[in-house]
Structures are given as structure tokens and as C-alpha cells.
């Protein structure tokens, strides 16, 4: 059954969405130049939609415009990454607390199914996609449209960070266990416990990301 879970498309089929997909895959990284001509050739389109997509990405904070260089992928410093994860912990912790009260039995079963598929995933890209499905469905179950909108914006910004921390097998296994603990709290309708466990889960992802950043800086 887990094989038929629809995986999230990276935004949509637009030029902007495809650039975001490249960020998540690590094909593009912080500081990389985004040449209109190169992207137009890659996506087999004219430079006009590429230019518009880059403007959208700049407005969203994913792209920076450097004088005499042009558009580049925004580079976040250590403190900015910490702030991103702190905000994510607040948002998703709140979502878990709300979902403990609002989620239906069907939604909880669907979350469990996604987590099972994540446990069985062998490809990092599929694991990352399933993880996004899990978190998106949890936000849906919270029944707060403004929280969902804010979390979506944050998740887009986090695409700058590149591939998911679930590329690390130990972190992926830990994430599955942490999801299971959150699900237990949701099923028990224990909002305080669900919130605390979700915050702890995000903190685990943050710790792994910081280890990766530190290792990369020392390479």
C-alpha cells in the first residue's frame, strides 16, 4: 500500500518550481550563479520566463542579486540556519498540538502509512519526499490555514539548505522513530506531548544539519 502514496511535486512544473527542485536535490547550492541563458537552455524555454522566475525567487528570499555578478543562490550563515530551525520547531510543534485535537482517525492512519513508507525507503530522494508528505499532512490535520501558509513559506526557504538530512541513514531511522512517537501522542490526543515530541524531532534534524555544515566548512 505504501508504494502508491503520492509523492510531493517540487512546487509545480513551473521554472520557479524546477529551480527549487534543483536546490533540494543539491544540483544548485549556496552561492551558485543562476545564468538566465543556461537555465533557459536547460528548461528549453526563452529567457523571459526564467527572468520572471528568478525575480519570484529573489522576492521569496531564495535568490540574491549580487552587483556585477547577477543572480545567485542565497547563502545562509550559521545563525540564520539556527533561526530557521527554531521557527520550524515552533510552527510544527504548534501544528502537532492542534492536530492532537483536530485530526481524524483517517488522517492519523494516513500519517502512519506515510511513516511506514519512509521506514521502507531505500533512496534518499524518496525518503526526503516522504518526509515532506508526513509534515505536510500533519500541518493539514492541524486545521489552521495561516499556520500552513507560514510553514510552507518557511519550507521553501529551507530548500536553500540542499538535500534533506535524511540522506544520513542513522538520522533517517531516528526520524521514523520520532514520527512514531508523535503519532502515539496524537492518537492519545495528548497535545502537550505531541508538541514536545515534534519540537524534539525538529531539534534532531537541526543537530544533524549543523554537523553537516561544520563538516563541510572543515573540508
From TrEMBL:
Name of this chain's protein: HTH gntR-type domain-containing protein
InterPro entries recorded: GntR_C (IPR011711), TF_FadR/GntR_C (IPR008920), Tscrpt_reg_HTH_GntR (IPR000524), WH-like_DNA-bd_sf (IPR036388), WH_DNA-bd_sf (IPR036390)
GO molecular function: DNA binding; DNA-binding transcription factor activity
Organism: Primorskyibacter flagellatus
HTH gntR-type domain sequence ranges: 9-76
Keywords: DNA-binding, Transcription, Transcription regulation
Spans traversing the lipid bilayer: none
One of the Pfam families matching this protein, by short name: GntR
SMART domains: FCD (SM00895), HTH_GNTR (SM00345)
Amino acid at each position: 500500500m505504501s508504494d502508491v502514496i503520492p509523492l510531493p511535486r517540487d512546487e509545480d512544473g513551473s521554472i520557479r518550481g524546477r529551480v527549487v527542485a534543483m536546490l533540494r536535490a543539491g544540483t544548485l547550492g549556496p552561492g551558485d550563479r543562476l545564468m538566465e541563458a543556461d537555465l533557459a537552455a536547460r528548461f528549453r524555454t526563452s529567457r523571459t520566463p526564467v527572468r520572471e522566475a528568478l525575480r519570484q525567487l529573489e522576492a521569496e528570499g531564495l535568490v540574491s542579486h549580487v552587483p556585477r555578478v547577477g543572480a545567485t543562490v542565497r547563502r545562509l550563515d550559521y545563525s540564520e540556519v539556527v533561526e530557521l530551525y527554531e521557527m520550524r520547531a515552533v510552527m510544527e510543534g504548534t501544528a502537532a498540538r492542534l492536530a492532537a485535537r483536530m485530526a481524524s482517525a483517517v488522517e492519523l492512519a494516513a500519517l502512519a502509512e506515510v511513516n511506514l513508507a519512509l521506514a521502507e525507503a531505500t533512496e534518499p530522494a524518496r525518503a526526503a519526499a516522504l518526509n515532506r508528505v508526513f509534515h505536510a499532512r500533519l500541518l493539514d490535520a492541524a486545521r489552521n490555514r495561516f499556520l500552513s501558509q507560514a510553514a510552507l513559506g518557511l519550507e521553501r526557504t529551507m530548500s536553500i539548505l540542499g538535500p534533506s538530512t535524511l540522506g544520513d541513514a542513522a538520522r533517517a531511522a531516528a526520524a521514523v522513530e520520532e514520527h512514531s512517537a508523535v503519532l502515539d501522542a496524537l492518537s492519545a490526543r495528548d497535545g502537550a506531548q505531541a508538541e514536545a515530541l515534534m519540537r524534539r524531532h525538529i531539534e534532531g534534524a537541526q543537530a544533524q544539519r549543523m554537523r553537516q555544515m561544520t563538516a563541510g566548512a572543515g573540508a
